[in-house]
Amino acid sequence: MNEVSKNLVVLACSATKLDVPNQLPAIALYDGPLFRVLRSYLREYRWPEALSVAVLSAKYGLIGGLAEIATYDWRMTTNRANELYGSVNKTLAEWSTMHSRVDLILGQDYLSSIDRRQVHQLYPATHVAEGPIGMKLNQLHRLLRTIGSACRPSTVELQRRDTLTYFLPDWDDFIDKDFDFENDMFSCKDRSKRNEKHVSTLMRPKRICDGVVVSLAQHLGTKGLLRRVRSSDPSLLTPRSVRHHFSLTEDQYAFGDCGAFSYASEPVPSCGGVRNLQIQL
């Protein structure tokens, strides 16, 4: 996060939500105007590396935009804002230190849960969207295009080859480069702090595969790109790139697999219809 100037955009939740039985990422579940503007942008452009999105929810408080939540019928009131005041400001303080700019696109009831004076004193690069909803939508539209990103390709053409294309199936094949072989110990107990490399990168410049098969089932649970974390975890502010995760080169591919074997015996797929939203982004 420190390598790129990051913008944190905090959106107010909306009364309009998708009526689905499963949990969905917050930016997919909410269907109000702000979220439609965001999703319209993401259909045209890739998720910018400099963009983080959070949602201030009447039920859940301040959460990452990719946090999986269930639909609900709560309204933000002055009393509810007061109840959320402590947790919201604590989380916002933590996240603000990771970003160079914070944009609050919230209504007055939502803003009352935030200590705006403290926010501005500690983080001068905090901007509050003013005016009615139409002006806020316009500000969000302009902000997203100011951050900028590459357009999404309509199609991806695979290069024709005279030889077979070999994909390495991902099954957590990462190696700790600083592993202590003498004492048979990992370099660090916290895996996120290890200098891990995927096996597909270890034989460069000669590569051992043309790409990686990424299974949805492998990345659910307690590890992987879609691992379950608390809704205020900063990793849920922005999607993690599959290509970056596996350190793939420009001429290597990431091939997606739905992981149906993991729920083949269940009457209803347990991973829901859009659990792979984060990977797609």
Keywords:
281 residues, alpha/beta, Rossmann fold, 2 domains, five-stranded mixed beta sheet, three-stranded parallel beta sheet, 12 strands, globular
Distance between the termini: 17 Å
Strand content: 15-25%
DSSP helix fraction? 10-25%
Radius of gyration: 21 Å
| Arithmetic mean pLDDT | 82
Q: Give the domain tally.
A: 2
Largest sheet, spatial ordering of strands: 4-3-1-6-7
What's the CATH C level of the largest domain? Alpha Beta
What characteristic shape results from the CA principal axes? globular
Q: What summary fits the major beta sheet?
A: 5 strands, mixed
| Low-confidence segments | 272-281
The CATH architecture of the largest domain would be: 3-Layer(aba) Sandwich
**Got a strand count?**
12
The ordered string of helix (H) and strand (E) elements is: EEHHEEEHEHHEHEEEEHEH
**Secondary structure category:** alpha/beta
CATH superfamily of the largest domain: Uracil-DNA glycosylase-like
